[in-house]
Amino acid sequence: MVAARIVSLIPSATEIVAALDCTDRLVGRSHECDVPTAVATLPICSEPRIDVNGTSRQIDDRVKAALQDALSVYRVHTDVLQQLQPSVILTQAQCDVCAVNLSDVQESVCELTGCDPAVVSLTPMQLSDVWDDIRRVAQALDVPAKGDAVVADLQRRLKELRTLTAAQPQRPRVACIEWIEPLMVAGNWIPELVEIAGGESLLSVAGEHSPWLEWDALVAADPDRIVVVPCGFGLDRTAGEMSTLESHPAWSQLRAVQNGHVYLIDGHHYFNRPGPRLVESAEILAEILHPEAARFGHEGTGWRRWAGQG
Q1: Helix 235-246 × helix 56-68 angle, to 10°
Q2: What angle do CA 100, 278, 129 make, to 5 degrees?
Q3: Between residues 71 and 225, which one has the greater pLDDT?
Q4: Which residues, in sequence order, are CB contacts of 241 under 8 Å at separation 6+?
Q5: Confidence (pLDDT) at 295
Q6: Alpha-carbon gap, residue 47 to 13, rounded angstroms
Q7: Cα torsion angle, 17, 20, 23, 27, sign
Q8: Would you tell me which of 58, 218, 263, 304 could form a disulfide with 54, CB atoms 3.0–4.6 Å apart?
């Protein structure tokens, strides 16, 4: 049987392929795929249509303008796909803003000649969906047993983490900020990660899309911990935007701010990639919520405490 020629158009799918020990079958990637580092040399098969530099407000304005004009936020390089002749293309149908969507891929596939790739679209909304997606990718790559093994190992690690955090005397109330301006609180699988890490997730519902958040609602919830994890932002970029939060008159009223419990997370590599590293994402939360018990070595690379401008 000829091994699959895989193009992954979403970072989480690339990481799933790597977890399945099929990295050597990848022939193309998205503009954002950067883990494992070996994929950096692969041809890039997509790009954003908008300028992704600037503040969260500027990016939000550009995305909304593109969607209002019925434009996709991303572009698929059909000419590159034609050259690569993939047999499997991995994409997603969870969020049109976060990555290349299914309709864009289907449109490009219709233009290809000489190949008829299987399109596997990932649609995670909660952790159980992530496990299903891993198994579906494994099935498409003819390694179903490996998919089952990967899922079993990830579930085992999360079960062990849950046991550790369940033994702690307190469960801090947590608000996870997924976008800074306008405010958005993290939904989907992240409330589950908070619960596994020994906290109580506020202001969003597991398995539902991340909702926009009014400042009044954040003040009313008054969380014990605030975790700032913007989708697509690394630690330094997030730190560069904290002045936007600090300048709001309600910010200093918050319990978490007053007690020094505001934390920045690398949202580019963790939390917002629904794949194997959601386990590390839960470990990051556990280190933040229960530092006396949870030590996995992520501080400084995956997260850091925010001390404020002063």
Answers
A1: 90
A2: 65
A3: 225
A4: 55, 56, 180, 181, 230, 233
A5: 96
A6: 17
A7: negative
A8: 58
Give pLDDT tens digits for 233-280: 999 999 999 999 999 999 999 999 999 999 999 999 999 999 999 999
**Burial letters for 179-188: b for 16+ Cβ neighbours within 10 Å, e otherwise?**
bbbebbbbbb
- Determine how many CB atoms are found less than 10 A away from the CB of residue 13: 30
- Stated as kind and residue range, the H or E segment containing 273 is none
Residue % of the chain over a pLDDT of 90: 84
Three-state DSSP class for residue 242: helix
Ramachandran area for residue 271 (φ above 0: left; ψ -120 to 50: alpha; else beta): left
Residue at token pair 């935007």: 241
Omega prior to 36 cis, within 30 of 0:
yes
* Nearest-angstrom CA–CA distance, 36 and 19: 10
pLDDT digits (tens, 9 = 90+) for 45-76: 999 888 889 999 999 998 888 877 756 788 89
pLDDT at 310: 38
Instruction: Please state the pTM of the whole predicted model.
Output: 0.95
* Cα dihedral across residues 261, 264, 192, 188: positive or negative: positive
Tell me the sheet residues that pair with 177: 185, 228
Q: Residue range 217-229: average pLDDT?
A: 98
CA distance linking residue 254 with residue 145, whole number of Å: 48
